[in-house]
Amino acid sequence: MIQQFTALTLAISVLTITPLGVFAVDRSNATLSTSGTERTLVLPASADQAPVIALGSGTDPETGAVVEGYAIIHYKKADSHKPQHSGGGGTTCYGYLASGAKWKTVEPWVVNPVNNGGLAGDFVSANLGADIAKWEDATDGTIGNAAGVDVLGEGSSTVDTLVADQSSPDGVNEVYFADVSSPGAIAVTIVWGVFSGPPFGRYLVEWDQIYDDVDYDWSSAGEAGKMDFENIATHELGHSVGMSDLYTTSCSEETMYGYGANGEIKKRDLNAGDIAGVNKLY
């Protein structure tokens, strides 16, 4: 079944209910510290294992509209998170950041592929483009025929220092490697957009991604003991197009299943629910 979340009211100051339909941690202590070449995404201590952090409201630099931001965290799968059974999912295994929230314009993206995790820069840049194509191809309900919608535009590489936007979007979709403070966090995708109001009026305006190359080694070939970049990036880019994490064990074979593991490669290829969900969204 489609991932559903129940809106509850809790008397805990660090937890709020967001239009995304999941619990989010307040951003009051979330910062990106920059000191020379050392970059660390510092998440609140209370964010440990929380899947979403609310970044508050900002301004779309292109339209001046008020938008909301969320940081979506992809955690390494611990033993306690392993599914008790592994289901094949199905065409109903999908969920959205918010119903109707999608890209209505096409924007370019930029990546600084320099990393300490063992990946070649050329591979990072090329693989991101290939992973985006998987989601775009699937918007017509199939994979591999390149007949889908151009959702995330064209990418380019840079040697400039990139900084994820946690206060307000800056009009640039950025991808880079850095340290992420929250234990177990593999990568973080920050998405800005309009997530409330009538579904037809919701839309996305920006996405940034940070891959942790301090706590993890990375692989381009599914090596044991390393995070497979294609596996993780395909999942993260699902957030960029508007898909949410899944935590139902029967949906554990989907690319958008919320936990990752060393050596895992099954998320490289979209599953039936991933395809059905992005096709319905676009």
Structure description:
- The protein has 282 residues and is of the alpha/beta class.
- The chain has one domain (15-281): Collagenase (Catalytic Domain).
- Helix content is 14%, strand content 27%.
- The chain contains three helices and 14 strands.
- It has helices at 121-137, 229-241, 272-281; strands at 15-17, 23-26, 31-35, 38-42, 52-59, 66-76, 109-111, 155-157, 173-180, 185-194, 203-212, 218-219, 227-228, 259-260.
- The strands form two sheets. Strands 1, 2, 3, 4, 5, 6, 7, 8, 9, 10, 11 and 14 form a twelve-stranded mixed sheet that branches.
- Helix 1 crosses helix 2.
- It starts with 14 loop residues before the first strand and ends with a helix.
Percent in helix: 10-25%
Q: Gyration radius, to the nearest Å?
A: 17 Å
Helix-strand pattern = EEEEEEEHEEEEEEHEH
Class derived from helix and strand content: alpha/beta
Instruction: Based on Cα principal axes, name the global outline.
Output: globular
Q: How many strands appear in the DSSP assignment?
A: 14
The low-confidence parts are 1-37, 79-87
Report the CATH superfamily. Collagenase (Catalytic Domain)
Number of helices: 3
The top level CATH class name: Alpha Beta
Strand content: 25-35%
Q: How many domains, in number, for the residues?
A: 1
CATH architecture title: 3-Layer(aba) Sandwich
- Overall pLDDT level: 84
Return the CATH topology: Collagenase (Catalytic Domain)
Biggest β-sheet, characterized?
12 strands, mixed
Q: First CA to last CA: what distance?
A: 20 Å
